[in-house]
Write a structure and sequence with these properties.
With 356 residues, the protein is of the alpha/beta class. It has two domains: 187 residues, Periplasmic binding protein-like II (D-Maltodextrin-Binding Protein, domain 2), CATH 3.40.190; 159 residues, 3-Layer(aba) Sandwich (D-Maltodextrin-Binding Protein, domain 2), CATH 3.40.190.10. Strands 1, 2, 3, 4, 5, 6, 7, 8, 9, 10 and 11 form an eleven-stranded mixed β-sheet that branches. Helix 7 runs parallel beside helix 14. The longest helix has 19 residues.
């Protein structure tokens, strides 16, 4: 999910064809059947899709797609909740499993059970109400600088990070301001728990004692403190399982091997979802756009643009991902309802332990 490797681009695909009926055409309004339709896709700032695909969608359906970036994932969702009843657009992309319950409970989406769900693994379908449908998934993981360790041993799990051997080597993101920062906090909560002789709070106290650095966001950590991304002095960073292939793809001059690697035992799985915003005046067209986002052509476009994996199991994976990406077999996860019930408390407690 290494979105900072791509520049955010707001695209507008234009067309003059009349809107065609889609998989749910029976509920299309007369205006949708006879007039050109523009649907607005609200998203976080890191959504990117190849422009030609949007143009092809417009050519096939007559539906113009306008992209509306609305900040990071949490900010975009909050704006959509505040505009309930008068939605910012027609479709929303970018809710992940750390905000899933908040989004569903806000009742800002209308249910839609897309036929494309038949091509998506059940384990990614976290919303039984079908308000939010899975589009992609990825893992937030510790990344390390391979060359920096040489003959030394990099950490193999979260517990290793408290060892004096790794003092002053780790940079993380603030979970209050960063999606990967929050995911990493959740990974530690899943690993160490809230009760017992050694909890996640004890763990973060030990990380602070071991001179962990904290940055506001991913870019500041990866391109600032990390030895690979920005020439910093810390060889350990919270990033993504897809960061190593991104290093290969964007290397100048070209390289054959990634300079970074992933600590698989540290990974937390993120799933991103799409939904039709309740109150849209173009529900039929909005549902067609959702189907498009779940279809193989768009799904195959996702990895090299947003550096996450497609949810559709029929989508081919680029060779660069096959060669350089770790897909953890046992990613850490928490129930979205538990995250929603405790997120703010966990962040406040983390702030008290680490920053004050």
């Amino acid at each position: 999910m290494n979105r900072a490797f791509r520049t955010v681009v707001a695209l507008v695909a234009t067309a003059t064809l009349a809107a065609a009926c889609g998989s749910d055409g029976d509920d299309a309004t007369p205006a949708e059947e006879s007039d050109p339709v523009t649907v607005t896709l609200v998203s976080h700032d890191s959504f990117f899709v190849t422009e030609d695909l949007l143009l092809q969608f417009t050519e096939d359906t007559g539906i113009t797609v306008e992209l509306l970036p609305a900040g990071d994932a949490g900010e975009a969702l909050n704006q959509s909740i505040l505009s309930k009843g008068n939605p910012l657009g027609d479709v929303f992309f970018g809710v992940d499993n750390t905000f899933l319950s908040r989004a569903v409970n806000a009742e800002i989406f209308s249910a839609y059970e897309s036929p494309l769900l038949a091509e998506i693994p059940d384990e990614l379908e976290l919303d039984p109400t079908y308000q939010l449908l899975p589009v992609d998934f990825g893992d937030v993981c510790l990344n390390y600088d391979v060359a920096a360790y040489g003959d030394a041993t990099p950490p193999s799990d979260l517990a290793d990070l408290t060892d004096a051997a790794y003092e002053g080597q780790l940079v993380v993101q603030n979970p209050a301001t960063s999606s990967p920062g929050l995911a990493f906090l959740l990974a530690t909560i899943e690993e160490f728990g809230e009760e017992g002789d050694y909890t996640w709070r004890d763990y973060w106290s030990d990380l602070r004692a071991n001179d962990v650095a904290v940055q506001a966001g991913w870019s500041e950590a990866y391109y600032g403190d990390f030895t690979v991304g920005g020439g910093g002095d810390r060889p350990l960073v919270v990033s993504y399982a897809s960061s190593p292939p991104a290093e290969v793809i964007f290397a100048d001059p070209p390289i054959d091997e990634a300079p970074t690697a992933v600590v698989e035992a540290s990974c937390f799985r993120q799933v991103e979802f799409v939904g039709v915003l309740d109150g849209t005046e173009h529900e039929s067209a909005a549902r067609q756009l959702v189907d498009f986002l779940l279809s193989v052509p768009l799904q195959e476009d996702i990895p090299l643009n947003m550096f996450v994996f497609p949810a559709n199991e029929n989508a081919a994976i680029p060779q660069e991902f096959i060669d350089h990406t770790v897909v953890p077999t046992n990613s850490k996860a928490l129930d979205p309802a538990d995250i929603e019930a405790n997120r703010e408390r966990w962040i406040e407690e983390w702030t008290e332990i680490v920053l004050r």
